[in-house]
Amino acid sequence: MKGLLTLFISFFFFQSAFSQSAAELKRWHNDSRQRKDESKRLKALLGLAEYHFGQSNMVSKPQALDSVHYYSEKAEKQSVASNDNESLGQAFVLTSRYFMRIKDFSSSEKYADKAINAYKTSGISKSIGYGYLAKMSANEQRKPEESMKIIQQAIAEFQKAGNRKGEADATMEYAFLQMVIGKVAESLESYEKCIELYKGTGTGNSKRAYSLAGLLYYQTGMLDKSLEYQLKAIAMLEDSGEENVEAAEIYNYAAITYFKINDNKNADLYFSKAYDIAKKYDNQELKTMILSNEILTLMRLCRSKEAVYYLKEMEKDYNKMEVPAQRMLTSRALTTYNTLKDFKSARPYAVKAETFSSNLPLTSPYQGMFLPPLFHYYFNMKDFKLARAYAEKFLDNAEYLKGTGGKEEAHRMLFQLDSVESNFTSAIRHYELSQKYKDSLLNQEKNKEIASLQIAFESEKKDKNLLLAKQNNKILTKTSQFQKSELEKAALIRKIGIGFLVTFLIIIFLLYSRYRIKQRTNRMLESQKNEINQKNNSLERLVSEKQLLLKEIHHRVKNNLQIVMSLLNSQSAYLKDQSAITAIRDSQHRVQSMSLIHQKLYKSNDLTAINMPEYISELVEYLQDSFDLGLSVHFEQHIENIDMDVSQAVPLGLILNEAITNAIKYAFPTRQGKITISLQHTHDDYFMLRIADNGIGLPANFEAKKATSLGMRLMQGLSDDIEGQFAASDDNGTVITVEFLYHYTLNHK
């Protein structure tokens, strides 16, 4: 039960949001996106976070917890912007719950403290107590006694603020922790107070208080009171129509009471209802608790095959379970195998049960899960010494907890042991005590009260069913009248239909004629389609041939340019004038920059565009090899991945060739330096080519427009060809820039 503490705590804050209608959720989503009304938007964000927290328990909603964090963070920012500390506190509580659920207890407690401070800052908050409840639940590893101190602070804050519902919620938490540490009487008193506080608040949380109080009345042996409270909880639950974690627990606790009074039919009914709902939620302990109880019921109903089947299914997940779930499965497995006399299968569970029992204080209410089945195991194994030790421990536990049912069972165990060991005086005494507690547990008067409670509950259900039947009768009467009217309409329609039949036949004839005409038209269209397809095929062949021809042209242009380069190279071998040799080599570089483009075109499927990063990289590599630079001059390239039309790629390649050649020749007297090349999009459809070096720079008072060198004039002329703006400047070296408008090719539009 302690393992469900986090689930119990979380429920109070999110019950209303969990059952929101589709219309309300749609409105919240719409409000969360609008900007005009900040308070409405903030309320929607908080509502969505609360709703998703409720949904996050469901197996079918794995992303719901992420949504909690998303909406709570947005609510936090909106609260800060709106200076709304009350809503900020609520957002922090939600974030705290999120971190608690993912077991980040440090962050959870930090946000709970933030919530308390935010609520206090608002000055008029009625919700400070919820900050303390968040702090209490922020760390599920905290001892119950420490948690109770924090809850007392929450209760005090709710009382100070006059928040009756908040006080009831906190009292519910307090009662549950009292139950966890074994203070049964105090816990019952707190639950009764909680039920009284909920009256008049207009909330449905009192059904939970009735259910848990009923569980405590069951533990103290007051089965009539237990059933009364459980039936009240079920009536409230079924009126609300909810199917959530709370519903599964309420049905489970009611079934436990029915099991105790040997009403196995109703026990099976409510255990089944509880398990069907629990399967929707990813909480192993809850499923184990319900299914393990159902196993005992099935054993009583002589449906042992079903019981063993469910037990085997649960055993598969034993190592994945948390400790509380392992405890329950251990207890139920040991009890089931004891009943089936399968002591070989029972043995490992007996060892586990002994370990669990020894790790619990004798006064713990959870001892009742292990001591009776351990007694029965060792009694059947004829180890009467160990059996007596567990029976006496169970009697001490029952005396401490003041549980009549536990005392009756403990004395019955000791009676069995004394009888086997022929200690008849002691056996008779234990038998008498067992009967005494049994009579007080289920005396005739109590049986009558239990029966009357069941009858009253069934009568109330029948009254509701009768009311529903009357409403159904009214609906049927109206339906009958409607059907009569419809029959009259049908007769009229039949008469009209006969009149329309002839018209219909005429229409059919016309449609058939139309169909024949359409067939002839389709045949004609099909013939035209075939003719068009033939022409398309011819055009495709022509396009293919054109592409092959273009590739061949580019190949031949490239070869011709290579021949030109060879001729220039041969010519330079006969020259002695260094300036002439240099001029020829410069021409070779220019020819090579164009040759590279045609080479890439005939090797590419796209015959109109050049990929600039590849082209510029190859051009730079060629110039490095031509000047035998090695590592003396470092090149840095920042080229955008863009394809450019040949009409722009060729001028850009020649400009690059001139700028890089000039830099290599004149910028670095020591032959050491760096050249940076970039081609980047600037704005709209404009690109900028930039070649910069860190060399000696341009001469003083240099003006590009007045320059007479062939390289500068060539670069300016090429820039004009692509309608670009050419500039040359000195910035820690020479910087050449060309800004131009990018022209899309037909294939790249």
Feature tags:
5-stranded mixed β-sheet; 749 residues; two-stranded antiparallel ribbon
Task: State the gist of this model.
By secondary structure, the chain is of the alpha+beta class. The protein is 73% helix and 6% strand. The protein is elongated.
C-alpha termini separation: 68 Å
Number of helices: 27
Helix content: over 70%
From the alpha-carbon coordinates, what is the Rg to the nearest angstrom?
45 Å
Provide structural commentary.
With 749 residues, the chain is of the alpha+beta class. Among the domains are: 1-147, Tetratricopeptide repeat domain (Serine Threonine Protein Phosphatase 5, Tetratricopeptide repeat, Alpha Horseshoe); 451-574; 609-748, Heat Shock Protein 90. The protein contains 27 helices and seven strands. It has helices at 5-18, 22-33, 38-55, 64-82, 85-101, 105-122, 128-137, 144-161, 164-180, 184-198, 206-219, 223-240, 245-260, 264-278, 284-300, 304-315, 323-339, 343-358, 371-380, 384-401, 404-420, 424-441, 444-572, 578-603, 612-626, 646-667, 710-721; strands at residues 609-611, 633-639, 643-645, 673-683, 686-693, 725-730, 734-741. It has a five-stranded mixed beta sheet with strand order 2-4-5-7-6, covered by helices on one side. It has a two-stranded antiparallel ribbon with strand order 1-3. Helix 16 (304-315) packs antiparallel against helix 17 (323-339) and helix 24 (578-603) runs antiparallel to helix 25. The longest helix has 129 residues, at 444-572.
